[in-house]
Amino acid sequence: MTSPRRAEGAPAPGRPAWVEVDLDAIAHNVRTARQALRPGAQLMAVVKADAYGHGAVPVARAALRAGAAWLGVAVLSEALELRAAGLRAPILILGWTPPELAREAVRHDVALTVFRAEEARELARLARETGRPARVHLKVDTGMGRLGVPPDERGLAAAEALAREPLVLWEGTFTHFACADEEDPAPTRRQIERFSAFLARLEAAGLRPGLRHAANTAGLFRFPDAHFDLVRLGIGLYGYAPSPFVTTPAPLQPALAWKARLAQVKAVAAGEAISYGATYVTSAPEWIGTVPVGYADGYRRAFSNVGRVLVGGVERPVRGRVCMDQFMIGLGPAPAAAAAPAAVAAPPALAAPAAPGDEVVLLGAQGEARLTANDLAQWAGTIAYEILTSLDERLPRVYTGAALEEE
Ligand SMILES: Cc1ncc(COP(=O)(O)O)c(C=O)c1O
């Protein structure tokens, strides 16, 4: 890995805790996704939620450079951030944009997801006022139960309303899978069938659906018949398979590492409590390190007494409760003499296994050891998506990789 470099505009590491993002890993994951892609189909890099915590602008740039054609976001502010950074690629807002915000999307050539027939007329009015066409993708609910027109005559009516408005540019039609990463492929097969039947119905009515898209990461790697014209790559872009049932043609590379430097290392005598609530009490003298990261940074309180970090290439346990801005780790047995209250500085023979300022890896690799977002997710009973998107923005992001040189 190249030495950490700051991307233009990224904050300088202003604290001894940070997130490193390897843009070469992002590029590798895009290329791996493209290998699996049906010829002719395009790739959308889903960079919502600040690119799943990785930083939307540098990730979007790296993904586009590696061959992604589209960018997907969840809300208008995310699209505007990309436009403000000078990114001209097509952007689709995958979520609901209320009418009072749609004007800004139209002004910035950002495509909107629509799922109500009435939206066609509202958007045509906005397009007239703005002097630009309103780009839209019709969302069809084929089994997710979240957003979308039903794939029946109600959906057809919405499609007809879009087609009637010359200032509304009907660019695409899409659906979203609920279970593509689950073991049983049947629900996804059903969704593909419903979507295909709806597309056929549009065609029979003389309507052109534009770019047809359905697949997320799991859909890309497991259901080649769901690639249609465009595939929306989210978690795979960041180097994770969405579940153990999803296999990839080449290993994906996790792009993110989370690191900090030890604030304090001390020998604690047996019978001493660590952190709020005294949920951990040393049973023997123990070296305890303090890590300057807490649940306000996204290091979950659920990791209390169950999480692990890497120090010197060795896994070390979280001791006691995770606090808002700090948590403690066990660094191994300490000699009783070092833990005695009189010990001001341990003699060399009793030296601690780590020193203040040493690197702690909360997520990522150190030597041969590695902790993944899936490990952290397991400790908290959640999924890697939630771990990555919970990384607070007060953690500086540092970008590495040759992809950065090309900026
Ligand atoms: C509509 C839509 N498409 C694509 C994605 C990307 O999904 P994944 O991260 O599983 O690839 C998401 C993410 O939640 C989404 O909401």
Your description of this structure?
- The protein is an alpha/beta fold and about 400 residues long.
- The protein folds into 2 domains: about 25-240, Alpha-Beta Barrel (TIM Barrel), CATH 3.20.20; about 255-370, Lyase, Ornithine Decarboxylase, Chain A, domain 1 (Beta Barrel), CATH 2.40.37.
- Helix content is about 30%, strand content about 25%.
- It has helices spanning about 25-35, 50, 55-65, 75-85, 100-105, 120-130, 155-165, 185-205, 215-220, 335-340, 375-380, 385-390, 400-405, and strands spanning about 15-20, 40-45, 70-75, 90-95, 110-115, 135-140, 170-175, 210-215, 230-235, 255-260, 265-270, 275, 280, 285-290, 310, 315-320, 325-335, 360-365, 370, 395-400.
- The strands form 3 sheets. Strands 1, 10, 11, 14, 15, 16, 17, 18, 19 and 20 form a 10-stranded mixed sheet that branches.
- Helix 1 (about 25-35) packs across helix 3 and helix 5 packs across helix 6.
- Residues about 1-10 have low confidence and may be disordered.
- The protein binds pyridoxal-5'-phosphate.
List the helices and strands and how they pair.
Blueprint lengths: L16 E6 H14 L5 E5 L1 H5 L3 H10 L4 E4 L2 H9 L6 E3 L5 H9 L2 E5 L4 H12 L3 E6 L13 H12 L3 E7 L11 H19 L6 E3 L3 H6 L7 E4 L22 E6 L2 E5 L4 E2 L5 E2 L4 E6 L16 E4 L2 E6 L7 E7 L2 H4 L19 E8 L2 E3 L1 H8 L3 H6 L7 E4 L1 H4 L2
Parallel strand pairs: 1-20, 2-3, 2-9, 3-4, 4-5, 5-6, 6-7, 7-8
Antiparallel strand pairs: 1-10, 10-18, 11-14, 12-13, 14-17, 15-16, 15-18, 16-17, 18-19
Bound molecules: pyridoxal-5'-phosphate.
The site of pyridoxal-5'-phosphate has 12 residues, from helix 9 and strand 9.
